[in-house]
Amino acid sequence: MNADPVFSFPDSQRVNKERVLKDLQFLAGSAKSRFDGNPARLNECAAYIFKAFSGQTSRVEEQKYFVGAIEYKNVICSFGPVEGERIIIGAHYDVCGLQPGADDNASGVAGLLEISRLLREYEKDLKYRVDLVAYTLEEPPNFRTENMGSSVHAKMLHDKGIKVKAMVCLEMIGYFSEKKHSQEYPVGIMKLFYPTKGNFIAVIGRVGQGKTTRRIKRQMNRTSEIKTISLNAPAFIPGIDFSDHLNYWKYGYVAVMITDTSFYRNANYHEPTDTIETLDLDKMCEVIKGVFNSVKHLK
Predict the structure, then answer these.
(1) Domains identified in the chain and CATH numbers
(2) What does the pLDDT look like over 4-13, one tens digit per residue?
(3) What number is the average pLDDT over the span 6-31?
């Protein structure tokens, strides 16, 4: 193992579980659902994210846009070199309808906020500019439309000719199971090659981007205690493009999704039962640690 003394984490407590839980409680512990029809709650979440980012860097901004007469916001912060190629790490903070959305996707946003705290500590060592983006309007009825916050962000990067090394999407990173046959797949034969227990995290990419998925998988397996697998498949396989990374593919950017595999494992998907109590915070913190290290080592 080629351990890097700067970015390796012999002390897993660098990812602070109490901080992660506090973020989850704000996002998913409220009776006010953060869906597109409740822009006031979305604005509360955007303000919370903005404040958390601002505690780590002065390079924080809102990317505002309108859907009809209603204004929505992405929240963006940056670390490392101001110019040059970028790494994008993103997660959506809205939910689908009237549900708490703990795994989908408070878990991804809590991971994003904790990564911002780690980046502050190691910013001087960054080779690439790292932009963290909290997206709005990923969920239906906006999914696969230009209303998605990630669609707005990806188009901006493309229109400005900004070079992107890779985009990493955090989409549901908190639900795990040790039960036999707790993991399903879009194609049955995959059970012959991948685990049947839902106790791992997956790095998902499109065909032709296997180099990036494998590098991230290797680094996550080296630096965290969560088993990580990778898969590159055509977008027509159900689930492969079911998040914000799909909007970066449109412009030819390398983009991958880090996921607990969503409805292929978690029966609480898009249900009122998607609560904080169903999450495994220890494993989730290992995912966050692994993602942070893999981004720092990305070549």
Answers:
(1) 12-297 (3.40.630.10)
(2) 333 444 443 4
(3) 79
